[in-house]
Design goal:
Transpos_IS110; alpha+beta; 2 strands; two-stranded parallel sheet; globular
């Protein structure tokens, strides 16, 4: 799915919680998804890695993120704003 089609797909859905592994591009996409009315949770990479089984790939990463957000003590990274200096 292209990026344009992904944004169109996300825009057509009602408000949802979107969970991603925190990385440089996750903040960009987090801001885009928040503008569309969704709540974004960014899981720190070192937390998601604890729940990853097998090799690092998209499918295993998605399962690891899902497993990590179900844990009650998982903390999340805030999506960075463009005006933030750090």
């Amino acid at each position: 799915m292209s990026q344009a089609k992904m944004v169109q797909f996300i825009a057509q859905h009602p408000e949802a919680i979107i969970c991603m592994e925190a990385c440089g591009t996750a903040h960009y996409w987090g801001r885009r998804f928040q503008q569309l009315g969704h709540k974004v949770l960014l899981v720190p990479a070192h937390i998601a890695a604890k729940y990853r089984t097998g090799n690092k790939n998209d499918a295993n990463d998605a399962l690891a993120i899902y497993e990590s957000i179900k844990r009650p003590k998982t903390y999340f990274v805030q999506v960075k704003n463009l005006d933030r200096k750090t």
